[in-house]
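Tutorial handout. Part one gives the primary structure; part two gives the three-dimensional structure as tokens.
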Amino acid sequence: MILDKYFRRPVFWDYIFGISISGILALLSFDKKIHIAKPEILFGLISDLATIALTIAGFILTLMTVLISFKSSVKKTNTELAEGEKPFEAFFSSGLYFETIKHLKNAIKSLVFIALAGYSLKLIVNTEINEFIFAFDILGVVIVFLTVSRSLLILTKIVEIQQEL
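Part two.
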């Protein structure tokens, strides 16, 4: 399945997709096939993206904290799983729990990177390089969207496990 391949290296695929989209749109703007916003709007969008990325990273960090707290209450290991055990307890005792935490941790890293890169760009990039700022804005939007989508997919799967109780 395509999601299995994606989840082997989700951050890599997010950035490949984001860089491809932003590169194509930046080239179109260089060729004047599309028009981009004024520098003030583009720089404002960087601040908005950084704020959104950090806020979402905080929510994901909260979700990780809740999962880790629940995990501490489950004392079983893989060898102790019983036939009548609840699926959610089995989740905490399986490798899926650690895989979930890894994906959420990487999502936080990716969002914080986008935020810090955006703030750094505002400090060092000349306002005359509109296409570069435009490309970063597109990359930021794509990364935030894909990261939130991935986190929501993980959360949906966890809720599905809980519904089996």
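Part three, for discussion. The chain has a mean pLDDT of 88. Residues 74 and 89 are 7 Å apart (CA to CA).
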